[in-house]
Amino acid sequence: MANGVKVISVNRRARHDYDIEETFDAGVVLTGTEIKSVRAGRVNLRGGYARTEEGEVWLYDVHISPYEAGNRWNVDPLRRRKLLLHRHELNRLLGRTVERGMTLVPLRLYLQRGYAKIELGLGRGRRTYDKRRALAEKEEKREIERQKRARR
Q1: How far apart are CA 42 and CA 81, in angstroms?
Q2: What CATH class has 5-126?
Q3: What values do phi and psi take at 100, rounded to 5?
Q4: What is the pTM of this model?
Q5: Closest to 124 measured CA to CA, from 100, 92, 98, 90
Q6: Domain residue limits, the chain
Q7: Which of 15, 26, 50, 87 could form a disulfide with 104 if both were Cys (CB 3.0 to 4.6 A apart)?
């Protein structure tokens, strides 16, 4: 927990599937039972994405499990959730997502001073051969580091 930030969930797959060019931090509008589930760590970001609609940003397909003790106040685990951004960030996102191939992807969900926040990455989808090349470069860097350590 660095700087009062507690990371709840990380979407590692997003950095593999997308070339992330820019990141934004946004607040998430949640119900009472949803925030309790988030604090319990019952969140899955895989497959989630954000979309700009009518001057607002909405988060889709992020699964927040229903709170076990929250009977009738539980909501749909995959419902869309509103994201809170500063106006200048929102305007920037509106312009960038109109570009061909740009997608807003949730990278991690964390708690900061008791509020649920999400880190969004503005990225371009990678093709299969790009993914293979990135994995090969990563493995090559690891091998170079291993050799450096072995020499010492």
Answers
A1: 16
A2: mainly beta
A3: -65, 125
A4: 0.76
A5: 100
A6: 5-126
A7: 50
